[in-house]
Amino acid sequence: MDEREARAWLGLITVLQLLPNALNAQLLRDSGVTHFEFSVLSTLYTAPEPVTGMTELARRTDSTLPRLSHVCSRLEQRGFVERTPRPTDRRATDVRLTTQGRQKLIHAIPKHIELVRSLVIDALSPEQLDALIGITGAIEPRLTADAARRGADPTPGRSSTAG
C-alpha cells in the first residue's frame, strides 16, 4: 500500500472499530438493549411475515445460531420476543416480535437516529454523503460475493445500518 491507500484503509478501520461501540453504548444507556439486540428487534419488525424462523433470522442478522439463540433467550425473558416450535417441523423454532418488543424498538429509534446523525450524517457535507453512498455501494457487492464464496449469507439484513 502506498501512503494514501494506507491512510484511507486505517481511517476506515478506525471508524469500523469506534462506531459500533458508540452505537452500543448509546442503546444500552438510553434503551437498555445492545446494538445486536436492537438489530434483532429491527429485523423482526421489518420482516415480511409476523413470524421468522431462527435460521432465517440468523441469516438476516449475520449471526450464528448459538449467538442468536442466546440473545433471543434474553429478549424472550424480557418479553420482547416469543419463540415457538414450528408447527410443521418441531425441530425448528420460530420467533415473533411481541407488542412489548415493538414498543421497546419504537422507543429506541429516535435517540439512536439522533446519535447516527451527530456522529456520521451531520459530519458530512452533501457531497461527502453522496461520496459515502458511492463508496459503500462499491464495497458492498465485493463483501456480498465474498460472503457467498464462504457460504455465509450474501444479503444480511440492514436494520442495524438503518440507524
TrEMBL record:
GO terms for molecular function: DNA-binding transcription factor activity. Residues 1-141 form the HTH marR-type domain. SMART domains: HTH_MARR. InterPro entries: HTH_MarR-typ, MarR/SlyA-like, WH-like_DNA-bd_sf, WH_DNA-bd_sf. It comes from Leucobacter triazinivorans. Pfam families: MarR. This is MarR family transcriptional regulator. GO terms for biological process: response to stress.
